[in-house]
Amino acid sequence: LTDRTTNLPECSDVYEGELSVLLPCKYSGFIPENPTVLWTRNDLDPKSVHLRREETDDLKGQNQRYRGRTSMRPDALDTSDFSLTLRNPQMTDSSIYTCSIGNERKELKLTDIQLHVKGKKLNTCDYKGQRSN
Fold this sequence. Notes:
Helices cover 3% and strands 39% of the residues. The chain has one helix and ten strands. Mean pLDDT is 86; it is low at 125-133. The protein is mainly beta. It has a six-stranded mixed sheet, with no helix packed on it. The protein has a single domain (14-118), classed as Immunoglobulin-like, CATH 2.60.40.10. Residues 3-111 form the Ig-like domain. InterPro entries: Ig-like_dom, Ig-like_dom_sf, Ig-like_fold, Ig_sub, Ig_V-set, IgSF_BTN/MOG.
């Protein structure tokens, strides 16, 4: 069994049924005081996909379709790696995701990632003739 996590560039495809997909977001600038990292989808209401405040996730305002399917590195704010892992990607997850950092005063958009989830990838073994006993 292989690890089927797919790393995405700025725009990529992933198949439905993969274990997870990584939406990359790295930052090299100044981390503000009381920082918040926010992943959003502007075509949803509520638009929050994942929110990290200081060292903990704040998922109270998270869109319900992502419940239990998103995570960030525990040391995200220390490493400035704000990449988001989305487990069990579904076709309805296809959209543009925005990664931002901010605090109560201002917010800075870091990147937009286009995610396209395709229908399930069939195992080529499914097409081969099967032996009958």
